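Please fill in the sequence for the structure shown.

STRUCTURE ENCODING:
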């Protein structure tokens, strides 16, 4: 399997050969709905289509190009992770048809009845009317099916590719309260912190005091409710980390997240960056669908 950058074309100028597959849009009169293939997948999931859009208006406005932005992000980065795993252990994460013209991977999603949803693709075959100078992705999306569906079994039999995994270390999934949470190393985050804490015109000292207070209040919360710390696979660094919430001074309903990383040699959690709630959800959803403890954009 080639080292594709993304499942589908991720940005306008991305070379076609870097995007794994083309998802044909649905034609609605003179319009084309490029979201339709993803809405169909979202509808088939146990969560239902409503779970894959944002609830808060500010995030709806930010991601208004899609009805199901959470799903598109999840599928894309799940695919990227599967490519990484496939290169380390070939043959477990992608299954090919006997003639190699079809390929499938496990989305990690399930139907309301608990059956895995398997994304299937067909190798792109140039048509006589195609412009030979126009480049296209190597594969074309054909649909998401269960193992028992004829559309899957007729090409792949009973073989099911493995789902993406992110860590085998159970410590990556919980906050170890015996470790120290560093409350001093965040000088590199002042500009971001001022914006997300609702303190755009405050001095560095005021922001520092606010961040320290927010961090100090978190450990007692975690001791009473381990779900406060949410495990994520942070794609940019390709490793497991944890999310912790903090509120804006000006609006308690505006929650942002500290991204922290465990250092075993010093038994410390260090602050890496600050994420908006939507980006935090994208990272967390690769591991599991967060319940509505606080990460609910």
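FILLED IN BY: designer on duty
SEQUENCE:
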């Amino acid at each position: 399997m080639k080292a594709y950058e993304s499942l589908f074309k991720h940005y306008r100028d991305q070379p076609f050969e870097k995007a794994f597959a083309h998802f044909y849009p649905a034609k609605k009169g003179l319009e084309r709905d490029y979201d339709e293939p993803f809405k169909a997948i979202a509808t088939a999931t146990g969560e239902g289509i409503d779970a894959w859009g944002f609830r808060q208006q500010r995030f709806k406005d930010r991601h208004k190009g899609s009805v199901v932005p959470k799903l598109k992000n999840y599928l894309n980065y799940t695919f990227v992770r599967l490519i990484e795993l496939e290169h380390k252990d070939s043959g477990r994460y992608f299954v090919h048809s006997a003639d190699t013209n079809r390929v499938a991977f496990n989305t990690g999603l399930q139907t309301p009845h608990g059956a895995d949803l398997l994304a299937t693709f067909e190798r792109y075959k140039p048509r006589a009317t195609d412009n030979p100078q126009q480049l296209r992705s190597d594969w074309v999306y054909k649909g998401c099916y269960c193992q028992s569906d004829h559309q899957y079994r007729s090409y792949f039999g009973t073989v099911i590719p493995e789902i993406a995994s992110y860590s085998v270390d159970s410590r990556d999934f919980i906050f170890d309260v015996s470790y120290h949470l560093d409350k001093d190393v965040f000088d590199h985050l002042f500009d971001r912190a001022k914006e997300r804490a609702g303190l755009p015109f405050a001095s560095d000292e005021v922001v520092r005091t606010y961040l320290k207070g927010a961090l100090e209040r978190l450990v007692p919360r975690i001791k009473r409710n381990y779900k406060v710390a949410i495990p994520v696979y942070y794609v940019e660094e390709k490793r497991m980390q944890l999310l912790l919430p903090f509120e804006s001074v000006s609006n308690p309903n505006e929650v942002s997240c500290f991204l922290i990383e465990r250092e075993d040699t010093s038994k410390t959690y260090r602050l890496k960056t600050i994420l908006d709630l939507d980006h935090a959800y994208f990272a967390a959803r690769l591991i599991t669908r967060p319940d509505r403890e606080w990460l609910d954009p």
